[in-house]
Amino acid sequence: MFGVDLLLQDRWRVSLAVISGTLYLAAADALAIRAGTWTINPDQSLGVYLGGTLPLEELVFFLLTNILIVFGMSLILNPQSNHRMVAYLKTLRRVRQTHREWPEHEIQSADAKPQS
Length: 116
Hints:
elongated
């Protein structure tokens, strides 16, 4: 998988960013719910509340959102990702060019199902 090793190399910073962002959003959400800025419809909630205020699904949403953002930004900003992406795109171009150069009858015969 693209970049798992890069995320693991920098796991301390990645974890810190995910956890701090999640806790911040959860705290802000809990404060807004307590203050009445917005409400969560109990019929639309699992009914499991953290600290008596924050629905569990809100925390899970913030966690997953932060994971996606932090993983993506960490990979985009890592110079090694850029080198890997350039190599991947070159390979993809080469494969596409190779397939374009194949004679049409070879492509059709490769797609044909063998007769039994």
